[in-house]
Amino acid sequence: MAQKRLSITVAGSGGAGVMTVGNALLEAAGLTGWYAHMVRSSGPQIRGGEVAAMICLSPEPIASEPAHCDLLLAIDWKNIDRFGDEISLTGNSLVVCDPESGQAPASICDSAVRCVEVPLQQLAGTIKGGRPNMVALGVAAQMVGIPRQFVQATLEKVFQGDQRVKAAMAGVDAGFAAAPAANGLASLPLPAAPCTGRWSITGNEATALGALHGGVRFAAGYPITPATEILEWLALALPKVGGAFVQAEDELAAINQVIGASFGGVPAITATAGPGFALMMESIGLAVAAEVPAVVVNVMRGGPSTGIPTKSEQADLNIALYGLPGDAPHLVVAPTSVNDCLNATQWAVHLSECLQSPAIVLSSQALGQTRIVGDKPAITGTDAARDVPEVIEDNYQRYRLTPSGVSPMSLPGMAGGRYTAEGLEHNEAGIPSVRPGDHLQQLNKRRDKLTRFDYGEYWADIQGAGSTAIITWGAPTGAAREQLACSGKFDGGLRLIALRLLAPEQPERMAAALDGVSRLLVVEHSHGGQFYKYLRSCYDLPDDTRLFCRPGPLPILAAEIACQLEQWNKP
Amino acid sequence: MNDAAVEQFSARCYKSDIKPIWCPGCGDFGVLASISRALAQLQIPPQEVAVVSGIGCSSRIPAYLNAYGFHGVHGRALPLATGLKLARPELTVLVAGGDGDGFAIGGNHFLHACRRNADLTYIVMDNQVYGMTKGQASPTTAPDWGLGQLTPGGPGMNPFLPLVLALGSGANFLARATSSDPGGTANILVEAIRHPGFSFVQVLSPCLTFQPEQRHWKKKVRPSPVEPTSDPVRAARRLMTDDNFFVGVLYRGEREPYQEPVVELQSELSALESEFEVRDLAYASSKVNAR
User: Distance between CA B106 and CA A541 in Å, rounded?
Assistant: First the structure.
C-alpha cells in the first residue's frame, strides 16, 4: 500500500559517517522525485559523540518532523541511549543493525520492534576502501525504494575521484544485496513525471543566500554552533560576488566590523547564536543610535548560557526584543520555514537598509540545520534601498527630521556630507547633545521611522479561516501548518497566524488577523512562554487564549498541537 | 610635503567647528593639532578620511575633526575601523582613543588588529589613567599609583608595554610620540599613515587633572637615539630596554597588509545557486541520449 510518508533515522557514533549517509539519502531521494526533510541531531562533540540523521521522505512537501520512526538504521550502538527521547519507535518500526556492534540496547528492544541484522562491518571489510556507512546507505536505499543510479549520481557529487566513488558504490551494492526483503515497510509512490526545480538546502544556507539577494556584500562572524554554516557559506560566496568576509576575533568585533562596513555604505550581516548574540547587544544599540543598517542573525539554540548548543529552542525572543539598553526601537524578523530563511533574511536586509536600523533575524537550530529537498524558494529581485543622497545639499544634516523619519545618509567619500556617527545622543546635525528637546526629537524619529513604514502582507503568514486559531512563530510554524491540513476536524474551522515581523508590533494587522477568532492557541518552543507574554503585552487577544509552550531540545510536533486543540473540546 | 603654492587643504581645513571639551593642559589638544597637520601634509581630501574612536576623553576627537567620523562604543573602535577599511579600501582610516579604551576593554581587538595588519593607523593618547570616569588606574598605570579610587594603594600590577605588545602581535609600524611636540608628532603620523599595514603610534598625552606629575613628561621625552629598524628582534630589544620616553619611529615592518582575497572571475548569484539544484547530470544526459 502506498503511503504518504516514510521516516528513517540513521544513527551512530560521531565519525561513523552518519551525516554522509543522511545527506546522500536525501539527495538521492530528491533525484527519485520525492520531497525530503532531514533533521540532524548530535551532541556537542565532533568525534566520539553521537549523531543521528532523522529523515522524512514523501511525495508531498514536508513542513515538520515526523512523530515516529519507521526505520532505524544503526551503524553502531555507541551512545544510542542518548537518543532515546528523540527516536520514537512503535510496534511497526523496523530496526536494522550490525551484529558486530553487539546486542541492541534495552531501550530499543523494549519498544517491541522488529530487528533485522545486517553485517555492515563485515561486508565493508570485504571491499577495498569499504566503509560500513556506505553499506548502510545501500541497505536504506533498497529498503525505501531509491534506484541505484540515483545513489551513484549522488555519491559522484559527494566524493572526488573515481576510486572513492567506486569503493563507496561497492559498499552500496553490498548493502542493496544484503537488505532484508519483504521488510514490511510501506512503499512511497514514485512520481509520474520527472521533478524539476527542486532544491536541496539547509536553513542556514538559505539564510546566507537570502542575505546576498538582499544586497549584502560584507559579512563578519565568529564561529558558533548552530550558526557557523551561514558564515562558512558566506566566506566562500562573498568574494565571488565582489564582497568580503572577515573571521572576527570575537562577536564584539564581528558586529562592529559589520557596523563599520555598513557605515561605509556596504550592506552587511553577521550570524551568531545566544551567547554571541548577548555579546553583540551593546553594539546593536549603537547601530540604533547612529542609525546604521546592520543585520544580525541569531540561530537560536537551547539556553540559558552555553545551554544545549546543538538543539533548538525559541527562548531568545526576549533578548531580541528587549535586550538593548535604553529605548531602542529596532527590527526583529523571524523565518517561518527552511525556505523562508532565504526570503525573511532578504526582507530583513531590505528593511534594515530602508529604515537605517539594525534588523535581528531570529532563526533557530531546527530551521538552520534542517536540510530539505523541496520546491525552489520563490526569489524576488535584489532590493537593498538605502537613502543615499546623490547630491549633498548645503547645510547637510545627517539626522534631519523628515516625514518618514528616515534621513538621507551620506557616505564617506562624499564631499559636504561629513558627520560623526554617534552613540551619544545628538541633534539633527549629529552633534552630541544632552538637551531634553533633542533627546525627545531623536527618540521620536527613531521610533516613528519604524512604525510609519508599511510592512505589507509579508508581516505574517495567515492561512485558513475559522474561529479557532493557532498563533506561532519560527520553526513550530511547520508543525502548525501540518495541523492546519486537518482543519476539517474543527468546528468553525482552523486558522494559522505565523508572525514574521515581531518588532515593531503591528496592532492593526493583528486585529484584522484575529477578527472572528474566539479561541486562540499560542504555540512556542520555550519554557517561559516568552512569545505569549509578548503577545499579551502588545495585542488584544481573545478571552479564550491558551498557551502551549515547551522547551527544547525535542522539536514541537504536529501531533502535540493536535493534542492541545483536542483538549479544548473536552468538558 | 606638497609645494605650498598648490596646497589645497590647510591644517585648519581638517578641524571642525566644535570646540573641544577637554581640561586645561590636556595633551589631547596637541594631538588634535598633530592629526590635522599630518592630514594637511598628506593633502588627503577631508571626505576621504574617516576617524573612528571608542569611549573616553580622547575618543571625542572625531567630532573635532573635519572628516567622516564614528564615535562608537567603548573598546570597539578597531573592529569598526577594520570593517570600514575592508569595505572601503580607498579611504584613509584613522583610529584614535585612550589607553583604557585600547588596552583594557579593547585589549583583544588591539592584539588582533596588530595581527591582522589591515592598513589602519591607530593613535593611542596614553595618559595612564581613566580620565572621563574621574581617575581610575588603566593598564599602563604604574603599580604603586595610589590615587585610583578602585585600586587603593595602587593597582599592584606592572603596566602593559603597548609597543611591545604591538610588536609581538604583528603590527607593521611602531612609533612613540608626545603631545608636547605637535610638529614632531605630525611628522610621525604622516609616516604612520603612509606606511602600509597596521601602524601604531603611542602618544604620551598627559592628564594634568588626574596625573599631575605628568606635567614633567615634556622634560623627560627625547628623540630616539637610533634609526628605526625593520628587524623585529632588534626592535624588541630596544622596546624592552628603553625607559618609555624615547620618541620617534621605532619599527618599520615589511609585512604585506591584510587584504581580502580578490576573485578574478565574478559570479552571478544564480551561478552560486546551482549547488542547491537537485539534478542528476549523468542520468539526465543518458535520458537525452536515449531519445
Answer: 46
A253 touches chain B (CB under 8 A): yes
Q: Choosing among B101, B198, B280, which should be mutated to test the A contact, i.e. which has the most A CBs within 10 A?
A: B280
Yes or no, beta carbons of B79 and A266 under 8 Å apart: no
Q: Of the candidates A509, A489, A499, A497, which has an alpha carbon nearest to the alpha carbon of residue A470?
A: A497
Nearest chain B Cα distance for residue A107, angstroms: 37
Nearest-angstrom CA–CA distance, A106 and A109? 5
Instruction: Identify the band that residue A381 occupies on the pLDDT scale cut at 50, 70 and 90.
Output: confident
* Beta bridge partners of residue A426, listed in sequence order: A432
CA neighbours within 13 Å on the CB side: how many for A505? 14
3-state SS assignment for residue A530: helix
Lowest mean pLDDT among A65-69, A211-215, A527-531: A65-69
Residues of A in contact with B83 (CB under 8 A): 218, 220, 246, 256-264, 268
ipTM of the complex: 0.95
Please write the tens of the pLDDT for every residue from A336-371: 999 999 999 999 999 999 999 999 999 999 999 999
Which residues of chain A lie closer than 8 angstroms to B291, CB-CB? Answer: none
Mean pLDDT in residue range A522-538: 98
**HEC string of A49-105?**
CEEEEEEEEECCCCCCCCCCEEEEEECCCCCHHHHCCCCCEEEEEEEEECHHHCCCC
Measured distance CA(A314)–CA(A476) in Å, rounded: 9
- Judge whether A184 and A94 are in contact, CB under 8 Å: yes
Point out the residue among B63, B260, B283 whose CB comes nearest to the CB of A420: B63
> Is A256 close to B47, i.e. CB distance below 8 A?
no
* pLDDT over threshold 80, residue A192: no
Cα-atom radius of gyration of chain A, to the nearest Å? 25
| Listed residue (A524, A521, A522, A535) closest to A476, CA to CA | A524
| CB pairs A-B closer than 8 Å | 195
Cβ–Cβ below 8 Å for A420 and B83: no
pLDDT tens-place string over residues A130-188: 999 999 999 999 999 999 999 999 999 888 888 999 999 999 999 999 998 877 888 89
Q: How far apart are CA A288 and CA A355, in angstroms?
A: 10
Q: Which of A258, A414, A432 sits opposite B47 (nearest CB)?
A: A414
A455 φ/ψ angles, rounded to the nearest 5 degrees: -85, -10
Dist CA A149 CA B179 (whole Å): 75
> Does residue A49 register a pLDDT over 90?
no
pLDDT digits (tens, 9 = 90+) for A80-97: 777 778 888 888 889 999
Q: Is the dihedral of CA B142, B145, B147, B153 positive or negative?
A: positive
pLDDT at position B280 is 65
pLDDT at residue A549 is higher than 70: yes
Measure the CA angle with vertex A31, ends A25 and A32; round to 5°: 85
**Residue A334 CB partners (closer than 8 Å, separation 6+):** A344, A361, A362, A363, A473, A474, A499, A500, A502
A98-103 contacts at long range (C-beta below 8 A, 24 or more positions apart): A98/A74, A98/A132, A101/A74, A101/A75, A101/A76, A101/A77, A102/A77, A103/A77
Q: Return the biggest CA–CA distance within chain B.
A: 93
d(CA A88, CA A75): 18
φ and ψ of A362, to 5 deg? -95, 95
